[in-house]
Structure formats: structure tokens, C-alpha cells
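Session log. Operator J.P. requested a structure for one protein chain; no other inputs attached. Running the standard single-chain path with C-alpha cell output.
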Amino acid sequence: MAMVYNHLKVGAFVCLMAVTLAGCGGGSRLPAGETGTVSGKLTYKGQAVPKGTTILFMEDKSGQLASAAVDERGEYLLEMKGGLKVLCGTYRISVAAPSIGAGLSAEDAMKEAVKTKQKSSEEALKQIPARYRDPEKSKTVFEVKPGPNVFDLDMVD
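Structure written below.
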């Protein structure tokens, strides 16, 4: 019985150490620098864009990327490298249409589109003017500053 108890203690210790060490990986995967958070709303001519539309931020100097998929109200919370902190800097903004049913079979994709009432990718693409689709052509920029930031974008033709 004492042998089983010792094995349990050793097993518990190993699990505890694994959890502790996993949390000591140096923190964020972001490069050093000040960070902020970015939230906002993405619309086209005043109307929310389709759910799943992606807003992309590309930092001009480093090329660092941050992105978010919008919800059914067009609202988003930007993520960078899997977290909500975004490096401060000047970002060029672009927008990508949602991909309905990505990774699903055709039948499941159709069911998902009907269930969520999402528009087809072609129809959603019409709500993203060409200049916003290409970060090289987009003239929309945003300065991320330390702390909370709000960036609302109402796209127009």
C-alpha cells in the first residue's frame, strides 16, 4: 500500500511540475515593446459586414500582423500571435471576405450557411471595396497606442 501511495505522490509531483513549467515559458510570444488592445466595428455603407469577415492590421515597419473575424454586428477584438495584446505602431488596414464552410464538406458548408444565415463568399466580397482587399493599395492606417484603442471602419466605394 505504501508503494502505491508513493507512486501517487510522484505522479502528482510530476503533473504539478509540468503545469508549473508550462506557465514559465517567458510569457507572451510578442517581441518586446509597448502593447495595446484594439476593438471596433467594421461596416460597409453603415451596415455591418457579414459575420466572419476578417479585418487585418499589418505594421508598416516590421510586417507584424494582427487580425480578427467580425461577429454578426460587425464588431471585433483584434488578436496578435494568439493573444489580445497588439504591439504599438502604425498599421495598414485591409479586409478579407469570409470563407463559408472552410474545411467542411460541401453538404456541411451549405448547412452551416443556412444555419448561420451567412451570405455566399461572392456576395460578401461585393461588400468589400477593392481598395480594402489589398494591404498594398489600402490607404487606411491606424496608430495603435498603449492601452485600449477603438478603430471603427465604415468602408465606402
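Operator note: The longest strand covers residues 35-44.
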